[in-house]
Amino acid sequence: MTRTAHGSTSVGRRHRTSGWLAFAGTLALVVGAFNVIDGLVGLFDDDYYLVGDNQILVFDYDTWGWIWLAVGIVQIVVGAGILAGQMWARVVGVVLAVAAAIGHLAFLQAFPMWSVLTIALCVLLIYALTAPPAGARGT
C-alpha cells in the first residue's frame, strides 16, 4: 500500500504486518535448531538412535547427520530472512519445511517422538508462511 500526504509530493511506503510471519520466522529458527541437533547427534553419537543401520530409509547415520546439519543451518538463515521480511525466505522456508517433513518421515524409526514433533512443527510452519498476504512483513 502507498500513502501520499495531501499537498505533498513525497510518497511513503507502509507494509502490512503479520503475526503469522513473526511466528513463522521464530518457528523456522526453532525447527532449524532441532535439525542442527539431529545432525550433530547423527554425526557424533551413532548409538543414540533406536534402530540398526539397515532400518533407516536410504542413508546411514553419518549421511543423515550431514543432511540434517545442512538443512538446519539453512533453515536458521531462512528464519532470519523471514523475520527481516524477505519474500525469498518465505518461498525457501516452505520448500525446506516440506523437505524436512518428508525427511523426518524417513527418520521416524530412528527417533519417533522427535520426528513426529518436527513434522508437526514443519506443517505449522508451512501454514504460517502461506497464510499471510503476499506483501505482509513479520516485523
Automatic annotation (TrEMBL):
It comes from Actinomadura graeca. Residues 20-132 form the DUF7144 domain. Keywords: Membrane, Transmembrane, Transmembrane helix. The chain crosses the membrane at residues 20-44, 64-84, 91-107, 113-130. This is DUF7144 domain-containing protein. Pfam families: DUF7144. InterPro entries: DUF7144.
